[in-house]
Amino acid sequence: MSTEPASGPTEDQVEILEYNFNKVNKHPDPTTLCLIAAEAGLSEEETQKWFKQRLAQWRRSEGLPSECRSVTD
């Protein structure tokens, strides 16, 4: 049994994720994602999922579609 809350990352973890999202890279490559996950104490899957959701949220706030294949779409 895992003691991790099913509700997602803690406040401290979100702070690390937000910092990386806003200051470092909105589209981290696999290596960077791995480092962010390690820093936040999350799995790579959780970190990737968070970035995907956060990117969709950011795109909506910018008035863009939440999913976009490329800049030319």
From TrEMBL:
This is Homeodomain-only protein. Gene3D superfamilies: Homeodomain-like. The keyword DNA-binding applies. Its main location: nucleus. Residues 12-62 bind DNA. It is found in: Nucleus. Interacts with serum response factor (SRF). Component of a large complex containing histone deacetylases such as HDAC2. Interacts with the acetylated forms of HSPA1A and HSPA1B. Interacts with HSPA8.
